[in-house]
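To assess whether the prediction recovers the assembly geometry, we first specified each molecular entity separately, as shown.
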Amino acid sequence: MGLENTVFESLPDVLTVKLDSVINWARKSSLWPATFGLACCAIEMMNTVSARNDLSRFGAETFRASPRQADVMIVSGRVSRKMAPVLRRIYDQMPEPKWVISMGACATSGGVFDNYAIVQGVDKVVPVDIYVPGCPPRPEMLVHAITMLQEKIMKESVKDRRDTYEPESRESIVPGTLPVTEGTALERETEIEVAENQVSRPYTIPSKHERRRSS
Amino acid sequence: MHKGCSNIFHALTSCGLLQRIDMTEKLHEFVEKLRSENTAWVTKVIEGHGEVAVITSRESIVDACRSLKDKHGFDMLADLCGCDRGPEEDPRFEVNYHVFSTKHHNRLRLKVVLGEDDPHVPTVTQIWKTAEWHERETYDLVGVIFDGHPDLRRILLPSDFDGHALRKDYPLRGYEPYSLN
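The predicted structure of the complete assembly is given in tokenized form:
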């Protein structure tokens, strides 16, 4: 008889638990990073994954080359202005839920390179959750960053729907009342307001998740 | 060992010096060979630290390079780089051709100086294939235009970059901060 039999004998048949905790636990325990090693910090990232500081014991089991299969993007290294649209495109190709760790001084703020070629901080391109300082940060610091990200994920809620941009979808509408009447001056005004507030972003509509975090 | 040197260190350095003088003599021989083919090819000879540089005019650079490669065995273009001397200098730009011979291990530098209002040089891609990317880099960073280049476009900076970044009057931080937000 194994451990699970002994444990389950003392527990009731049905457990109630918060949905948020289960979902967040599942998300944080299997954070698969997307490889975005650009420069020297990538070598420290490789060190973090290797046997001495093992990142897979925290759930970052595989570093997926394809962004479509990844959860977290670790931007390690300096991002040049030529690379920035590519970075944005890879970020947009990641499905929700997604997080970004900016690893190293160059990704956080441009690092030592205050010049025409390097983007001064990757948060000008993608929204960042965890910043890791260092040049390069020690592997233990990157492990700490993943742990911090896991704590951050545990505080999230499923109620923050991240796949829609319109704030209207989060408001509940009383049946029988519509926010805008068709053909009236109110509709025209609302259209103008919506057109004015529209921020033109490249490539895709960003998620609600991103609007809260972007700089 | 050199006579009269009690110190081994002195002896070794003087041997090295001798070697260096020997080397520059050989290089000067190549310069003389170039000059004997066509005096217009060698405008000026600069020597320093065991290296010899020849200043050529832009009309004769291709012929000089062709002669160096075919007849004198300089089969490798080690580097082709441009330099901006500064907006106050005249001529402003220079293009350096570092040629190396894998047969007799000699290095020679050819230099073309250009004014700011006419930064054109004929290309040497037909002589050394590697010049293709080096000339693209020089065009990208300094702004020297290579006539006859098969594919002259930016190689290091983004294609929509405005200006030539390694010119002395280009600011270090650039003009606008980059943001996609």
